[in-house]
Amino acid sequence: MHCGCTAQARKGAKQQMSVSPEKFLDGLNAAELKPLVSSKWVVPCSNRRIAPRERLLSRMTAERRRCCFVLQSPAGYGKTTSLAAWCRALVPFGYDVAWFSLDASDNDPGVWLDYLLTSVGRVNPAISREAMLMQGFGNNQDGLERAVIALVRGIVQHRRELVIAFDDAHHLTDPRILEALQWLLDYAPANLHLAFASRGPIPLSMDRLRAQDQTLELSHADLRLSPEEAESFLKTQLGEVDAASARRLNDLTDGWVSGLQLFSLSLKKKRRATTSGAIDLAIQEHVRDAGTFAVYFEREVLSKLAPAELDLLTRAAACDRFCASLCAALFVRDVPERGGMVNRLARLEGDNLFITPLNQSGQETWYRLHPLLRQTLLERFESWSDGTRREVHACARQWFLEHGYLGEAVHHALKAGEPALAAALIEQCAQTLFLGGQMRTLAALVRQLPQAQVQSSLNLRIWMARQQLFHMEPDACAAGLDALDADLPPQRAAERFTVLVLRGALAIQRDDANLAMSLLPKLLDPPPSADAVTLAGRNNVLSWIYMQRGEFQAARDIQDDHAHPRDAEAAPLIGTGAGVLMGRCFVGLSHALEGQMIQAERTYRAVLREAERHGRAANQSACVAAVLLGEVLYEQNQTEAARELLERRADVFERVAVADVVLRGMLVLSGARWVAGHRLDSFAWLERLEDHGTATGLSRLVGISLAAQVFRRLSNNEYDVASGCLARLQALVAATPERDARSFDGLRYAARAAAIRHQMATGDLEQAALQLDALIDYCEAHGRQGHVAPLRLQRAVVDMKLGRAAQARTNMVTALSMGHRMGLLRSLLDADAGALDLIAEFARQAPFDSVLAFYIERLQAAAPRVADELASRGRTKPRPADGMRALSERELDVMKLLAEALSTKKIARALGLSPETVKWHLTNIYGKLGVSGRDEAVERMRDLAAH
């Protein structure tokens, strides 16, 4: 990208638009376009011509450990300058700073969250990695709250002190954003500090923080200049000024920095001497607030500027920020050279003409106008003809486009009356945004367009369907795909194939194997014109279909490196659910479904390592790989490691992953808690899985949760409750259509496995034996060898109880051989409580070969961990001395309901809270009580009550 003004900008907007948008954008490198305004998250440069506010800065620095800082005053009191100086002063103290300069366009939840997470991610990408995945799930409060909680958890993990500074926070009026900010305040960990600069009151509840002395709120009385500061400031502007005159001027302006600055500028423009009389004459003007600023500025400053300088500033006011080459490009005729423009801007800044440097970017220095000056100049700009204003915006659009600033290019294209060009620009950049994981940004750009313009672009509608699919909006996505099917002409083969692939992906999201498999023949025959993203997505859909059919090698073959689609630069597509990393997750899952846990682990670890290296673009793949790796860790009996890996990601994978991943993650968390002896927590995860399945209409997830509840209740000797769960499961099976016979029916498998467990527990052994044989045959036919091994072990237990010792040993050896070969531990340990005793009995009767003997030793070494965990509970974790006194009133309310064994959802309903807020309270409770879950919290509460 070059820095000089362009030939196209010189020719004028009318000539630029004499060709079609497609021709105009020909050759555009979409990969180089940046959708976000980078200067919004950069702390503004220090303005050396503004006197330092040492008194204010010292006070804020001394109070730096407080949670919330508010600088509130009318425009012109130096809020931004003071806040930026404080942020820079915190760096030597080991603080990290995330800066966010707000404007009116940020008063949208999606845009606001995108900028916030990007700003925090510049400090450390790991802080906002999971929140970025959560941010896209609609503008509803549930999605926003989940994103905020994920961000807070990332901040906790960051350890270092972090300040998030919101400049010009008065632009935020959307109730959804304000509630999200309230959550940030309410959930803020000790290492998070929020700072706001605003012209008006911050509409947030801070009474609790005030009561805890955790706020520092500064008004215009604190921000106004002291007499000494005013004198120092005037001396930097005018040279020598006597103290009495400086004091009178400061009294008149009430310490208003902009008023003093304007008086200084006026005196310099009039070339008045800085005598007491000259200052007294200026005082008679009575400029003391924003209401009189514009009139005075127009008369005393703007009218005295050279016409070229006034024209320049008026054009610059049309842009939120500007630099020398942009200013040069804003002139359609008589274009000044960039070098001359650099000198002119430097002179205007040197004259202190309310021009503030923002940051340096390459060879350019970015500036912005003081809000009061910009408001005055915009009124002048609006008085120009409609055609002239459009020409200026068209020139700005072209400059921002050629220099890679997508968001600003779209904004100015719309201001220039070029909605077709804006739509074409978004359409051309959509794939880059998609592959970069910026689906929310894509949606925000599309929302700027007139609805008629969006509807007229079939490609934009396809991208919006992709966005709805990614953000788990299945009904909206289905409706959009139906409309596209109706509107796409037959000759648009590539687009029609894309819609077909999206239907396949939607079927996977809805866990509809029958629909997905019905699309298989068409998916196998893509048109030559299909794009790389569509082909990559199609490969992932095919992998899922093949896994349902038990064709695991085919599922892996479709992800072969040589067959995987590549981008225009011949590089593999990395990001999003269509990318190669997600495809490799499916490769690992195909191994896991076969029971080949060792191969699965290697694949998941490699994907996780590479996904984290690619950052935001591969966040979804990183999350999915982590969940699937957690399943392997659980299988290897590393239950605590699995819990630590998955528990903090639960809110994320519940929202971004397909049903199989959500299912595995929650089953692992339930199992890990069960192994650790935390029964309430184990059932809580199963209930959450059931709730998720019910809310999303995924009956397989509901059924598998009920089946796991049957197992757990039988283990607790709760036979009546187990029978009730089994009855509900069987009713669900009866109401759910069967899957295609070629695919594995996970719901019916779970129901049959649960019935067998119930039969074994209640002594119906002959029936259990028959059902086990049938279920083993079913699993072998569908390639689910990972299920076969524990079923064979159960069959051995049943045989032994029926007195068939020889058959029992045969099944036992088969189960152990399979388990050793596939790397299974927990599957066999969880198969039956008496299995290890039976193994030991057979070993005493006739030793196993050395390989199986070694495997048996591993199983026996893993088994005592359950008893050890139960025995050591309460001894290994410190218990704070203050106990229940450390809990807030709301946390006590949560604890009382928790002691009644209520689920998170029921606690939320009882207290009128969201489930996410209850989960956050539970996290805080566990930390304050020094426990790791519900069971220990209830036990701790009872201990304290007894004393």
From TrEMBL:
<keyword id="KW-0804">Transcription</keyword>
<dbReference type="InterPro" id="IPR059106">
    <property type="entry name" value="WHD_MalT"/>
</dbReference>
<dbReference type="GO" id="GO:0006355">
    <property type="term" value="P:regulation of DNA-templated transcription"/>
</dbReference>
<dbReference type="Pfam" id="PF25873">
    <property type="entry name" value="WHD_MalT"/>
</dbReference>
<dbReference type="InterPro" id="IPR036388">
    <property type="entry name" value="WH-like_DNA-bd_sf"/>
</dbReference>
<dbReference type="InterPro" id="IPR041617">
    <property type="entry name" value="TPR_MalT"/>
</dbReference>
<dbReference type="InterPro" id="IPR016032">
    <property type="entry name" value="Sig_transdc_resp-reg_C-effctor"/>
</dbReference>
<dbReference type="InterPro" id="IPR011990">
    <property type="entry name" value="TPR-like_helical_dom_sf"/>
</dbReference>
<dbReference type="InterPro" id="IPR027417">
    <property type="entry name" value="P-loop_NTPase"/>
</dbReference>
<dbReference type="GO" id="GO:0003677">
    <property type="term" value="F:DNA binding"/>
</dbReference>
<dbReference type="InterPro" id="IPR000792">
    <property type="entry name" value="Tscrpt_reg_LuxR_C"/>
</dbReference>
<dbReference type="Pfam" id="PF17874">
    <property type="entry name" value="TPR_MalT"/>
</dbReference>
<keyword id="KW-0238">DNA-binding</keyword>
<dbReference type="Pfam" id="PF00196">
    <property type="entry name" value="GerE"/>
</dbReference>
<feature type="domain" description="HTH luxR-type">
    <location>
        <begin position="880"/>
        <end position="945"/>
    </location>
</feature>
<keyword id="KW-0805">Transcription regulation</keyword>
<protein>
    <submittedName>
        <fullName>ATP-dependent transcription regulator LuxR</fullName>
    </submittedName>
</protein>
